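pls design
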């Protein structure tokens, strides 16, 4: 079985959605909304409406009703509640009671297919079709892409692993707290302290790639460890992707992060070289000291090494 590198997996994931979009131009109904996701993502299909008591919204997957919402709460259902014995999604469906939008959490490749939205009002029935393609990435490669572990002080980059569309809104969260966003409008691109209501813990340490939407954290700290979410919002759908970062501490890094500390360490290293390193100016050179012999009134000389001289007289 062929092996895949992380770069090959990312390139494959980026390439496939482009092919689907090209097919949509020539051979697929233009009214179908194309959605591309990776296993483990949360995908939301938007109705683009606000429900009222008179409307009934139904969702179908491959002609099987999987969710429904209306003014009558007793008729609101998801998955097995709508069709007894059908447990494909196993509590992975969520309905927004304000808009009727459907969210599929922890999506898998078996969830790929056509989803139909039906909005029934007193005088009309409107429909929208979504085509979801879920890409199955080998577990080891997926871990390399979405889970990172670095030393404290190093930089780490979170890659969206998707081709950025200029009209998409990309928003980054840390432990569900908003930290950065980027879209086609340069005036609305911001990060940490530049964003209104954003968490300022990363002040001056975040960088956004305007071409890819990737997020880089510089001068990392152990407190940066945790769960990061990337939300990609389009006109009719959104994807939420998880990234996990683990920052492990280096002994002495936090305590020795100043110029004075570095100078101190340099001085210690210089003394070590002078005293102990072969070729150092003070290595094992023999010194002599003299003591007066009282019985003969002669001076007697005793040799000793540089280390003994250092510890005795310095």
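designed seq:
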């Amino acid at each position: 079985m062929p092996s895949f590198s992380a770069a090959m997996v990312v390139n494959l994931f980026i390439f496939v959605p482009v092919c689907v979009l090209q097919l949509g131009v020539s051979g697929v109904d233009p009214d179908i909304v194309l959605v591309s996701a990776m296993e483990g993502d949360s995908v939301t299909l938007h109705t683009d409406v606000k429900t009222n008591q008179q409307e009934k919204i139904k969702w179908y997957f491959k002609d099987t009703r999987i969710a429904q919402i209306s003014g009558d709460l007793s008729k609101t259902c998801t998955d097995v509640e709508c069709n007894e014995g059908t447990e494909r999604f196993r509590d992975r469906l969520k309905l927004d009671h304000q808009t009727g939008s459907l969210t599929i959490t922890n999506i898998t490749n078996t969830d790929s297919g056509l989803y139909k939205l039906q909005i029934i009002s007193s005088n009309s029935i409107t429909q929208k079709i979504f085509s979801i393609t879920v890409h199955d990435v080998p577990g080891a490669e997926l871990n390399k892409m979405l889970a990172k572990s670095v030393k404290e002080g190093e930089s780490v980059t979170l890659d969206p692993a998707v081709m950025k569309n200029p009209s998409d809104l990309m928003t980054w969260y840390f432990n569900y707290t908003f930290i950065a966003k980027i879209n086609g409008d340069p005036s609305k691109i911001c990060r940490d302290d530049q964003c209104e209501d954003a968490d300022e813990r990363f002040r001056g340490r975040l960088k956004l790639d305007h071409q890819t939407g990737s997020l880089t954290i510089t001068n990392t700290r152990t407190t940066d460890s945790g769960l990061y979410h990337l939300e990609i919002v389009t006109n009719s759908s959104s994807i939420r992707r998880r990234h996990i970062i683990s920052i492990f501490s280096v002994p002495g890094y936090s305590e020795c992060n100043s110029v004075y500390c570095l100078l101190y360490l340099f001085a210690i290293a210089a003394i070590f070289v002078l005293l102990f390193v072969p070729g150092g100016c003070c290595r094992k050179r023999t010194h002599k000291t003299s003591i007066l012999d009282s019985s003969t009134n002669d001076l007697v000389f005793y040799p000793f090494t540089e280390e003994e001289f250092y510890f005795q007289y310095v």
